[in-house]
Each structure stands twice: as structure tokens, then as C-alpha cells.
Amino acid sequence: MRLLHKPLGVGHSLGIHLATLEVGRSVWTFRPSPAAANAMLTVHGGVIAILMDTAMGSAVYTRIPADSYYTTLELKVNFVRPLSLTADQVTCEARTIHVGRRTATAESSVINADGKLIAHGTCTCLLTTA
Q1: Buried b or exposed e, range 34-71, using 16+ CB within 10 angstroms
Q2: How confident is the model at residue 9 (pLDDT cuts 50, 70, 90)?
Q3: Closest-CA residue to 22 (of 72, 69, 58)
Q4: What does pLDDT average to over the chain?
């Protein structure tokens, strides 16, 4: 399996960290902070979407050939409840649903420390060769 996580990029700057990586599955964590605030003083939905996109993309990446790359074509997020800036760490688990020659799909869920659903969603990725 290729190395996926390097300490750079938007996810790293927000405190998004890889916890588990398996073929077709990834788990990432995020601890809310004031850097993620929106106007309502909760975690901005875009930050949650970044967490989910990172997790789903990673799951897809583990299933494609070594000479291939992916890019997100579509991202769908359902926000179920707000996430407080002072909340404990949340976990995002993603799994691939389909990996074909040209596209792949994945799903993910963000769960808080109490086991409650924060958000869930899906993505479609375009697959290309190097």
C-alpha cells in the first residue's frame, strides 16, 4: 500500500489525523478548535466536509493501481447536528462502495465522542493513470 499521509495540506493544518488505514477503509480523527469556527461559533461545515473528503479519498486511493490517481468529482454531505468548538475528538470512518476503471464511490460518517452521528455523506472520484 502506498504512503498516503504526509504532514502537509489543509487537513494537517486543521488538525485532521490518520488513525487507521486498510484496503478500502480509512479512519481519521479531528479535535475541534477555534481555527474551525463559523459565524455561529460551531465547527464550520466546510471543515467537516474536508475531514470526510480526506477519509473517503484515502479509502479510494488504497484500492487503485499504483500508477493511478483520483480527484473528487462530487461530494455530498448531510449535516445531522452541530459540532461544538469545545467538543472532544470526532472520528470519521470511510469505506469504498465501488471502484471501477474510471470512477469510484465511497461513503463516510462522522461520529462524536458520545457515539452520536454528526454528518454522513458520499463521494464520487474520477480515476486517472499517471
Answers
A1: eebeeeeebbbeebbbbbbbbbbbbbbbbbbeeeeebe
A2: confident
A3: 58
A4: 93
pLDDT band at 107 (very low <50, low <70, confident <90, very high): very high
**Phi and psi dihedrals of 100, rounded to 5?**
-110, -160
C-alpha distance across the termini of the chain, in Å: 17
pLDDT value, residue 11: 81
Task: Tell me what pLDDT residue 7 has.
Answer: 66
37 Cβ partners below 8 Å, 6+ apart?
43, 44, 85
Task: Report CA dihedral (11, 12, 17, 18) to the nearest 10 degrees.
Answer: 80
| Grid coordinates belonging to 15 | 488538525
Q: Using alpha carbons only, how large is the chain's radius of gyration in Å?
A: 14
